[in-house]
Specification:
Length: 363
């Protein structure tokens, strides 16, 4: 990249990039401000300043230390010799370090069970699946977000009773419900969807959550089923009120995977960070660091240790699991499901991570 930029005479920020959401691991907090070192690629022999600070040429790139004072920060890069300038906007997240969250995708069966047993269950936690998550919360304070479907075979959310509404609301400090998709099948339901379809499904799920559980359960961050959507669809999610979307941001066989509409370069960038904001759509993208149902029990701690060792990814650790692996009747049942959750929450606590919802950290 540097050689190309130098050959055509252009300057370009290498770190941070426009939309980067930074924390103290990206620099150093002193005197209430975040000090970071900006890196710029460009041709030698130029007089470069960054926010008025002279950038020094070292090992083929320009470096300048600047300070960030608040949430939103403009970084202005000027080339005095060429008489040109450019700017980017980055963010300082003061509350996104040493935090973690567990999110759960593909949820509907536990809600169906509560509805079917509404005349027997005195509490939502009489449902064994939800009781397990409360056990994790009670032991470690873990905050959990359930991303839910509208329907499954023989059930939809309109059949959920509202008799437990006050209990849902009373637990909203650690438990959230948000839109995931209309249903489990087909795969990648929004990969080609337009705004109307996205808004229709969002509205159907969200209005039912409010009816049976209360607005307190909602969260402006979610994970869309399969993490694939068009730009138009994501624009609709933003219009609906979602400020952030979580995904894997992998590149497989040269193509972005579980990365919404982002291109290869953007996907690769998000994969190496906690958060990144696409200014063109006013959307924050969050990287999922570990998928528990993809890991064996004895692989979880080493994987979390690996994430913690990478400064640009270690601030907020986002952990995902899927509902279906909890159930013995499911073809890929994982009998150690509970142990995976407990192992994860125990590791987070012992490594100095406290529970938080993503929405509490990105503002």
């Amino acid at each position: 990249m540097s050689e190309q930029l130098q050959s055509n005479g252009q300057l370009k920020a290498v770190f941070p990039l426009d939309g980067d959401m930074l924390n103290e691991y990206d620099g150093e907090v002193r005197d209430g401000r975040l000090h970071i070192t900006v890196e710029i690629a460009g041709p030698a022999g130029r007089s470069i300043t960054v926010n008025g600070v002279e950038a020094l040429l070292r090992d083929g790139a320009y470096y300048a230390e600047i300070t960030l004072d608040g949430y939103s920060n403009t970084i202005a890069i000027a080339d005095k010799d060429a008489g040109s300038s450019s700017s980017i906007v980055v963010y300082w997240l003061k509350h996104a370090v040493n935090k973690y969250r567990i999110s759960v995708d593909d949820n509907i069966w536990f809600l169906k069970d509560i509805a079917e047993h509404q005349h027997e269950y005195r509490s939502i936690f009489d449902n064994p699946y939800l009781a397990m998550y409360k056990e994790v919360h009670d032991a470690y304070g873990t905050k959990v977000q359930f991303n839910i479907y509208y329907q499954t075979e023989g059930f939809n959310l309109s059949q959920m009773p509202d008799k437990y509404k006050e209990e849902w609301k009373a637990n909203s400090d650690w438990l959230r419900l948000t839109f995931h998709a209309l249903q489990n099948d087909p795969d990648k339901p929004y990969i080609n969807a337009g705004a109307d379809e996205v808004l229709r499904d969002c509205e159907r799920v969200t209005e039912q959550i409010i009816r049976f559980g209360g607005e307190e359960l909602l969260d402006p961050v979610t994970t869309i089923h399969w993490g694939e959507a068009t730009r138009e669809g994501c624009r609709a999610f933003r219009k609906f009120g979602f400020r952030g979307l979580a995904g894997y941001f992998w590149i497989v066989d040269g193509k972005p995977v579980v990365s919404y509409y982002l291109d290869i370069d953007q996907t690769a960038h998000v994969n190496g960070r906690d958060f990144w904001k696409d200014h063109s759509e006013d959307l924050v993208f969050m990287k999922i660091d570990a998928v528990l149902d993809r890991l064996k029990l004895d692989e979880i701690v080493p994987e979390l240790d690996r994430v913690k060792s990478r400064p640009h990814e270690a601030g907020f650790i986002e952990i995902l699991i899927h509902e279906q692996y909890y159930y013995p009747h499911y073809k890929a049942y994982q009998p150690d499901y509970r142990n995976k959750l407990m192992t994860t929450a125990k590791w987070a606590t012992e490594n100095g991570y406290s529970p938080a919802f993503l929405s509490e950290c990105i503002d």
